[in-house]
Specification:
This protein is an alpha/beta fold and 316 residues long. 55% of the residues lie in helices and 9% in strands. It has 3 domains: 5-93, Multidrug-efflux Transporter Regulator, Chain: A, Domain 2, CATH 1.10.1660.10; 103-177, Methionine synthase domain (Methyltransferase, Methionine Synthase (B12-binding Domains), Chain A, domain 1); 192-315, 3-Layer(aba) Sandwich (Rossmann fold), CATH 3.40.50. A 5-stranded parallel β-sheet has the order 5-4-6-7-8, sandwiched between helices. The protein has a 3-stranded antiparallel β-sheet with strand order 1-3-2. It is globular and about 65 Å long.
């Protein structure tokens, strides 16, 4: 079966494109004037609308910008040239095992053929064999990356990416719910972790993977879901007596907005509440503020152990 988002003929509004690609409206307008791309059409009200092939190209440009390219260097490329460059750059920058997990391709094939029940069964079986931590790090995380790249290149339609995300969430939610409560009779502190995203961040799969890792290490998880207004995050952290506020940031969020929001959150939260953040946003990769602990999924276990050690020292 061949499926491509290019077949979608309904044009996108500028708000749709901003939400879909992570490129601000102002950026799109500047590029239109400076580089003659994108080239929006106009609807009956005179508002900009963008054909699907231009949206796909904008996704690829945004991905290359996240990899360090300057817009002016890549915006004149065709979609095929951008896709080849993104794949080449992504391969050279990945720090993944040389031999991917054998279930990876099987899962991807099931997604592409829309066999979602079989896909969920495959995931559940893999989780039982691998254990929750290895399942998240070695299978779900790289699978999510591959699906995201396929979506950016137009090889996955939006609805297919949603089907994938929903299926993974179903399996992970069940896994987190079934994690046995850890016996803390040895006095090991159990951090209370509030997990959410900011209103501009609608992607929640990375957050759920982090929740699974926290739960596997005995943390008390308090999930708020995605797109929580900043004042509500602060109120929730206070009311639930959170020790840690964990946030996820994808590349779709404006890095400057990420930095500004983290600064404001730090100013509003009680001093003892730590801010941990993860994701592929450039604000976390280039120069993360000192008051934010940036964690990869594989780092969470060590970070929780370090938190516990610091709590013991404080009590002592």
């Amino acid at each position: 079966m061949k499926t491509s988002a290019i077949s979608v003929t309904v044009p996108s509004t500028i708000s749709d494109v901003e939400r879909d690609t992570g490129l601000a409206k102002e950026t799109l307008r500047v590029w239109e004037r400076r580089y003659d791309f994108p080239r929006p059409e106009r609807d009956t009200f005179g508002e900009r609308v963008y054909p699907s092939e231009q949206v796909i190209k904008l996704r690829l440009i945004k991905r290359l910008i996240d990899l360090g390219y300057r817009p002016g260097k890549v915006i004149g490329f065709t979609a095929e040239e951008l896709q080849a460059l993104a794949q080449k750059s992504g391969t050279s920058r990945k720090n993944e095992p040389a031999r991917p997990h054998p279930e990876l391709q099987a899962c991807l094939d099931l997604c592409k053929s829309h066999q979602m029940e079989a896909f969920r069964r495959k995931l559940t079986q893999a989780m039982l064999v691998m254990g929750l931590k290895n399942f998240v790090i070695d299978l779900v995380a790289p699978l999510t990356t591959q699906v995201g790249e396929a979506w950016a290149c137009g090889q996955f339609a939006v609805f297919e990416e949603h089907l994938f995300a929903e299926s993974v969430q179903i399996v992970l939610r069940g896994a987190v719910f079934s994690v046995p409560q850890v016996n803390h009779s040895n006095g090991a502190p159990r951090p209370r972790v509030l997990l959410t995203t900011l209103p501009q961040e609608r992607h929640g799969l990375g957050l759920l993977m982090a929740e699974a890792m926290f739960a596997a290490d005995g943390a008390h998880c308090i999930p708020l879901g995605v797109q929580t207004p900043l004042p509500d995050i602060v109120d929730g952290a206070r009311a639930m007596q959170a020790d840690i506020v964990a946030l996820s940031f994808s590349t779709t969020m404006n890095p400057r907005h990420v930095s500004d929001s983290l600064r404001e959150l730090r100013a509003r939260l009680p001093e003892h509440v730590e801010i941990w953040a993860g994701g592929s946003n450039a604000a976390l990769r280039k120069r993360a503020p000192a008051y934010v602990k940036v964690c990869e999924l594989a780092d969470i276990a060590a970070a929780v152990a370090d938190w516990r050690q610091r709590q013991r020292q404080t009590v002592a």
